[in-house]
């Protein structure tokens, strides 16, 4: 199971999961509150 293809697919799955975990809460804030409550510091990241 440790072929290059499987490692690549697992790497993509982990990166997709991390991207969702870090971006979804901020997007949810913006959608629910209809403005960006977290200030300029986070928007510049």
TrEMBL record:
Protein localization: Membrane
Main subcellular location of this protein, as a coarse class: membrane
Keywords: G-protein coupled receptor, Membrane, Receptor, Transducer, Transmembrane, Transmembrane helix
Record bears the keyword Transmembrane helix: yes
Transmembrane regions listed in the UniProt entry: 12-36
This protein's GO CC annotations: membrane
GO MF annotation terms: G protein-coupled receptor activity
Membrane topology per record: Multi-pass membrane protein
The keyword ATP-binding appears for this protein: no
Domain G-protein coupled receptors family 1 profile residues, every copy: 1-45
Family membership: Belongs to the G-protein coupled receptor 1 family.
PANTHER family named in the record: NEUROPEPTIDE F RECEPTOR, NEUROPEPTIDE Y RECEPTOR
Name of the protein in question: Neuropeptide F receptor-like protein
Organism: Dinothrombium tinctorium
């Amino acid at each position: 199971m440790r072929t290059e293809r499987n490692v690549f697919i697992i790497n993509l799955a982990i990166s997709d999961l991390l991207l969702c975990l870090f971006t979804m809460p901020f997007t949810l804030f913006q959608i629910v509150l209809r403005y960006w409550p977290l200030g300029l510091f986070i928007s510049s990241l």
